[in-house]
Amino acid sequence: MTAPTTTTAQQLLQLDGVTVRFGKPGARPALHAVDLAVAAREIVCVLGPSGSGKSTLLRVVAGLQQADAGQVLLEGRDQSAVPTHRRGVGLMFQDHQLFPQRDVAGNVAFGLRMLGTSRGDQERTVTELLDLVGLPGAQRRAVASLSGGEQQRVALARALAPRPRLLMLDEPLGQLDRGLRERLVVELGRVFRELGTTVLAVTHDQGEAFALADRVVVMQDGRIAQTGTPLEVWQRPATEFVARFLGFDNVVEATVQGEAALTPWGKVPVPGGTVDGPCRLLVRPAGVRLTSAREGLPCTVAARTFRGTHVALLLRPKSGPQIEAACALQNAPETGETVGIAFAAQDVVVLDTAAG
Ligand SMILES: Nc1ncnc2c1ncn2[C@@H]1O[C@H](COP(=O)(O)OP(=O)(O)OP(=O)(O)O)[C@@H](O)[C@H]1O
């Protein structure tokens, strides 16, 4: 027997050139020729500013929105003629809309009843899922008696109960306070990994995405600006848009010459192998090192903000744009002090201007 010449591992979800337009022809599409593949058991988080197309992406995968061009494939099968309820995908939206007249068990078992699952199996699944989401024994509680976080867990259990092959979450923790979101996002990750659930989640909160995702997708104006592991995207934002979206503002015009670039801040070292010529350069705040005022580039400390793990400094050099630096609390200078700075090549990123 001969092996097939090309072996591409089948993706659970694949979008090929998916375009969605609202309104007038010629207007910017909400999704523009989007290609995306999600492997089984992968947790992918879609990040992006408001209006970048995140919800439209989920809706087109769920079959709640028709694509004007391109294809959505689930386990290799084109879904264009498959209605939402036959796609085997689960949805959990920000306004999770539990049924107020049903108790917790009635809510969690909803999808199973629709599938005609036996009562015994329903009860077993509800018990298992309530244990998993940290609400053991809550079957008979009234939905109205639950806190926001507890309701979110019930909504999650309800979405998981029919064992969807793909679970889609739209701002799943959007309305909860930050502390609760940080705890729940860790729990969500644990539940998904324990069950082997494939997840496509949308959030505008990068902290949430980075905590949950195996891979993040950053969207800009209906296109994918970058995709990679959280670490890859954080360390190497591909474009100025992605860098600024992640909150990095140390971006300048530069001209690379060998091992350094000429910038408004003077010479900045660049990573080995950087091509000579003009570019946009990002210096991540962690790569701005404080030196004595006599060495390095002299700057005035314009502001300092305690961030829990470090102090964020806003520095004003004599020339060039202001610079953000991150430093340890014990080394943080006071506002108004003059410091010197040097740049570390490993935190310098040459941005792709063509796509940015
Ligand atoms: N039903 C609709 N009719 C017309 N335009 C729409 C419709 N739904 C979305 N759009 C437009 O499509 C674009 C993408 O919207 P989408 O809701 O997908 O963005 P998003 O990234 O999810 O935004 P947000 O974070 O605010 O939810 C926006 O310009 C939006 O105004």
Automatic annotation (TrEMBL):
GO CC terms of this entry: ATP-binding cassette (ABC) transporter complex
Single GO molecular function: ABC-type quaternary ammonium compound transporting activity
InterPro entries: AAA+_ATPase, ABC_SmlMolc_Importer, ABC_transporter-like_ATP-bd, ABC_transporter-like_CS, Mo/tungstate-bd_C_term_dom, P-loop_NTPase, Transp-assoc_OB_typ2
E.C. code: 7.6.2.9
Pfam families, alphabetized: ABC_tran (PF00005), TOBE_2 (PF08402)
Transport listed as a keyword: yes
ABC transporter domain segment(s): 13-246
UniProt-listed SUPFAM superfamilies: MOP-like (SSF50331), P-loop containing nucleoside triphosphate hydrolases (SSF52540)
Keyword vocabulary terms for this entry: ATP-binding, Nucleotide-binding, Transport
Name the UniProt record assigns to this protein: ABC-type quaternary amine transporter
Organism annotation: Streptomyces natalensis ATCC 27448
Lineage of the organism: Bacteria, Bacillati, Actinomycetota, Actinomycetes, Kitasatosporales
